[in-house]
Amino acid sequence: MHLDVLDLRNFYYRTQLGRVAQRAIRDRVVAMWPVQAGQTVAGFGFAVPLLRPYLAESRRVIGLMPGPQGVMPWPAGMENVSVLCEETLWPVPTGMVDRLVMLHGLETSEHPSAVLEEAHRVLGPGGRALFIVPNRSGLWSRRDITPFGFGRPYSMSQLETQLKRHGFTPERTSAALFAPPSQARFWLRTADFWEGFGRRFGPWLAGGVLMVEASKQVYAPTRGGLGAVVRRPLKVLEGVGKGAPEPAMNRS
After folding, report:
1. Which residues contact 154 (CB under 8 A, 6 or more apart)?
2. For residue 39, is pLDDT > 60?
3. DSSP state of 15
4. I need a labelling partner for 158 at 20 to 30 A (CA). Which of 89, 115, 212, 242 fits?
5. CB atoms < 10 A from the CB of 177, how many?
6. Coil, strand or helix: which one is 166?
7. CB 208, CB 103: distance < 8 Å
8. 108-121 pLDDT, tens digit each
9. In this model, does residue 234 exceed pLDDT 50?
């Protein structure tokens, strides 16, 4: 079940813990996807906190927010780019998106397969999608004081398997939110240190969210019928159609 957009807004923009989480995840997104001019960048779920670095240079930025969650105008003080949509029917032409970010859109959906099908549809050739989900082994998925404590958390293998089933090829993996989900001043002040430490020693320190960058599988068309040419015929057919050899006793 999707969280309410007001709860998500209040967490990311009105709490210190939410701002720490926003900065940690956004820094990883920008590190994986440096800003490039002329691209169409979309986010589904509540991904708008991660899209701000792309507003200036991108050809188009779209914040897709599912109906069960609700929508809010974004960004503040600028022309609105957020759109309320059905979670399984996005108002985006097929193959239009160059970069797609999904945050709080997969783990909270009651129709994850249909969501992934829409993500596959809107992604263009050569495009990339970044799926960000709660880590089932992390601390953040075990505390309901943050949005990451709701929905279905994933392991890395579970997320990659689900993506492969829907036509995506995982390319890179990462993680974020290595500091505990605590509002204590010590953890908030040292959050940047824990992010750097976690990226260096990830296998020993579970991040609160998993991130998988995936590309869209595009299959080459196959040719059948008369277009299929057999380059090496079976040898068992050799000699078919030739005259039978004449017995030696009949030769003059």
Report:
1. 107, 133, 134, 135, 136, 162, 210
2. yes
3. S
4. 89
5. 28
6. coil
7. no
8. 999 999 999 999 99
9. no
Across residues 72-92, what is the average pLDDT? Answer: 94
Rounded to 10 degrees, the C-alpha dihedral 158/161/163/167 comes to: -170
Tell me the two tokens of residue 105: 């859109």
From 152, 173, 170, 153, select the one nearest 161 (Cα to Cα): 170
- How many CA atoms within 13 Å lie on the side-chain side of 9? 12
| Strand 168-176 with 82-85, pairing | unpaired
What is the rounded CA–CA span in Å between residue 156 and residue 173? 8
Whether residue 7 contacts residue 68, with contact meaning beta carbons closer than 8 Å, is answered with: no
Whole-number Å distance between alpha carbons of 61 and 82 = 9
Angle at Cα 158 formed by Cα 187 and Cα 180, nearest 5°? 5
Asked whether the bond before 75 is cis by omega within 30 degrees of 0, the reply is yes
Enter the tokens of residue 111. 């129709």
SS3 track for 179-238: CCCCCCHHHHHCHHHHHHHHHHCHHHCCCCEEEEEEEECCCCCCCCHHHCCCCCCCHHHC
- Residue 109, SS3? coil
One-letter amino acid at 177 equals L
| Beta strands, E only, the chain | 40-45, 60-66, 82-85, 97-103, 123-134, 168-176, 209-216
Q: Which residue has the tokens 């991660």?
A: 50
Residue-level pLDDT at 235: 52
